[in-house]
Design a protein that fits this description.
The chain has about 280 residues and is α/β, with parallel strands linked by helices. Helix content is about 30%, strand content about 25%. The chain contains eight helices and eleven strands.
């Protein structure tokens, strides 16, 4: 048993070394997000058939979930989406709302949710789902510092995504970024939304309420890891009707300029210091 496991690990390490050795030549298919600054930094958009991480700080789980939903809208088109989350996620961060997905421009009929008993089950389920090339996207939502999501697990998910062509999004709530093989890593916070549409007065003698609807979803999205380019930070507004991100009218400029010069292959320790 130990010999078979050693052979499996050796094979896995060999495949990973070949992937990393040709990292500069790696040219995945990409989908543009719609935001000019982010797409330029990502050299055309978000890489498909890869793993991407989205982290939420503090009480920002709703913002990170909305950002993931926006990425899903850009990636999946009309293909099925599997969203894997732990049983107690409903208690910690609330249940996924199908009407909410619909308002964001996504088709809830394409969404399959899977509730896992623990992080181990969630990880196994996500890996199995990534092997199905009929899917458009797999979201793995994990709460807390899950030791199961280590570097080895990340490499396995990356290899599975590349083999099937299915993109994986890891939604990490109440967790600290750790070394991984993710193509990108984001830290997402909520940003101020522009005002909604002014309401009509109930009667001619009554003043109109200043706003009658929620404004568009707006995210403070910080790209802290990019395996093939620089990082940056932007205010990104989600356009529900067009199903794409754009620059927010309330924030016409980036929050922070992306570094002009940065090695493409940075060490994970340096990336974690950027995240901090």
């Amino acid at each position: 048993m130990s010999g078979a496991r050693t052979n499996t690990l050796a094979t896995l390490r060999g495949r990973i070394e070949r992937i990393e050795a040709h990292g500069d030549a790696y040219a995945p298919n990409k989908v543009p997000l719609g935001h000019a600054g982010a797409d330029a930094t990502l050299r055309g958009g978000l890489a498909l058939a890869a793993v991407h991480e989205v982290f939420a700080e503090g009480h920002q789980s709703a913002a990170a979930t909305g950002f993931i939903a926006g990425l899903a809208g850009r990636i999946t088109a009309r293909r099925p989406l599997v969203w894997v989350r732990q049983d107690f996620s409903d208690i910690e961060s609330g249940a996924l709302s199908m009407s909410g997905f619909s308002e964001l421009g996504l088709d809830p009929r394409c969404l399959v949710t899977v509730r896992a008993a623990d992080a181990d089950s969630a990880l196994r389920t996500a890996a199995d789902a990534l092997a199905c090339d009929a899917l458009g996207l797999v979201v793995l939502e994990v709460w807390g510092e899950a030791r199961q999501l280590d570097l080895v697990a990340s490499r396995k998910l990356t290899l599975a995504a590349q083999a099937s062509g299915v993109t994986a999004l890891l939604l990490r709530l109440a967790a600290t970024p750790q070394p991984s093989t993710a193509e990108t890593r984001w830290i997402v916070r909520a940003a101020h939304s522009p005002p909604g549409t002014p309401s009509m007065p109930a009667a001619p003698s009554m003043p109109a309420a200043p706003w009658s609807t929620w404004g568009a979803p707006v995210f403070d999205a910080q790209l802290v890891r990019n395996r093939h380019g620089p990082v940056g930070r932007w205010i990104m507004e989600w356009k529900c009707d067009e199903c794409l991100f754009s620059e927010s009218a309330a924030y016409p400029q980036p929050v922070a300029a992306a570094p002009a010069h940065r090695p493409h292959q940075a060490r994970d320790g340096e990336l974690q210091r950027r995240a901090g």
